[in-house]
């Protein structure tokens, strides 16, 4: 039989649920980061791979879309942090009722936190897209050397890819 009052029992259930929700929002960062890398990686690969043949408007639009993607993911990450902070504040209140100290006595703060790292990742990739908008040659793979290296044998084997 439990010696908890009805209020303490409810607080303990809510505390358990808060812990699960906080874990969910903590994992959400990893999920968002994975999706971000997949989408922006494919976009960036396509831009770099097809840059020489893309019309300037399409190239600029793709770079702007990549930059906007970074901004959207930063906003989504901020929202996850806001939800986590709200849950953390409530968990601290419940800990005073329950006598717990998991969240009220946090680890030593550091300058470079997980949040800072996530924002830096989005920021660096966003900066790469921004630079690529104004200086597309930064990511452009040199195309001329492909045809300069065509040997006689390669011309025979792959006549369509080699000039004359």
Mean pLDDT: 85
* Class derived from helix and strand content: mainly alpha
Distance from N terminus to C terminus (CA atoms, Å) equals 90 Å
Q: Point out poorly predicted stretches.
A: 143-150
Count of structural domains: 1
Total beta-strand segments: 0
Tell me the Rg in angstroms. 26 Å
Topology pattern, helix = H, strand = E: HHHHH
Question: What best-fitting shape do the alpha-carbon axes yield?
Answer: elongated
Q: Specify the number of helices.
A: 5
- The amount of helix comes to over 70%
Biggest pleated sheet = none
Q: How large is the share of residues in beta strands?
A: under 5%
Structure write-up:
- This protein is mainly α and 164 residues long.
- It has one domain (6-157).
- 73% of the residues lie in helices and 0% in strands.
- Helix 1 (6-50) runs antiparallel to helix 2 and helix 2 (56-98) packs antiparallel against helix 3 (114-134).
- Residues 143-150 have low confidence and may be disordered.
Compact description:
Helices cover 73% and strands 0% of the residues.
Q: Can you lay out the helices and strands and say which pair or pack?
A:
Elements: H1 6-50, H2 56-98, H3 114-134, H4 144-148, H5 152-157
Helix pairs in contact: 1-2, 2-3
List keywords for this structure.
single chain; 164 residues; mainly alpha; 5 helices
